[in-house]
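Subject: for your reference before the review

Hello V.,

The reviewers asked for a structural picture of the protein, and I figured it would be easier to keep everything in one thread rather than splitting it across files. Below is the amino acid sequence we used in the manuscript, unchanged from the supplementary table.
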Amino acid sequence: MSTGLDVLNVARSQIGFHAGAQEENPYGIWYGIPNAPYCAMGVSWCFAQVGLSHLIAAQTPKGFAYNPAALPWFQRQGLVVNKYQGQPGDLVFYDWNSDGVVDHVEILEAASPDGITTIGFNTGNPNDSIHESGCFRVHRPYLFIAAIVRPQYPVALKPVSKGMTSKKATAVVGGTGTAIAGATGMIHNGMTSTPTPTKTPTVFIAPPFPADPTAFNLGQKSDAVVAVEKALLKAGLLPTQYVTGIMNTQTQSALIKYEAKQGIKVTGALPQIIYDELKGSL
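And here is what came back from the structure prediction:
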């Protein structure tokens, strides 16, 4: 009989997966929504591998793909627990912008007074500055947690072991495509490889909007500038070499392009609404 630890171990087996071109990923292909944000579909896939899809069937028998629709489904069943009492196998929903709409979901691996350790899909790589989309283990503070949900597992959750347990299905990236080996039978052309579990990383946490009106002037150096540059890099508007933590003309030009894409014309200092939006995209 499957438990939350079984779901967690499936997620662990995917650590190291990197999405392909145009966010190609096997979880979206499996769910039926390819080339789309796949954090929820990755979680749903993990539950499916151990026959527990019915526990998270918020939208379809396979699970859910849209977080704002899923959380109310869990709330109606009374499955939300105290966010400071998370257990392995719980689902963690995040609201990056603090606007009341959940943006992301991950599977909880461990919790402490200082924060939580989760395994997330469609998550930035905490080990590099490029923030590639994939499946990674990350550490996060409690700040942006909107809710922690505990599915009604048929067997009570147990303390999780430190060892990494491989499951029957593994997400891999081939030379010309992405595939899940085993469970879904969708093997694309190219060589397959099993992801190697990563060491415990640290994740960059963007600071609050700075009170200093000159914080984003040319030459200014701060974590807030790093946050802006990382977000612009993720948006494809700033080359990697200009993510320096020091405000430069390239970063300013990328900001202008970003603001234009949002339909906002900004003159003068960077407004908090733009900073918070960039911060929330990390």
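For the response letter, the relevant points are probably these. The two ends are 37 Å apart (CA to CA). The chain has a mean pLDDT of 80.

Happy to draft the paragraph if you're swamped.

O.
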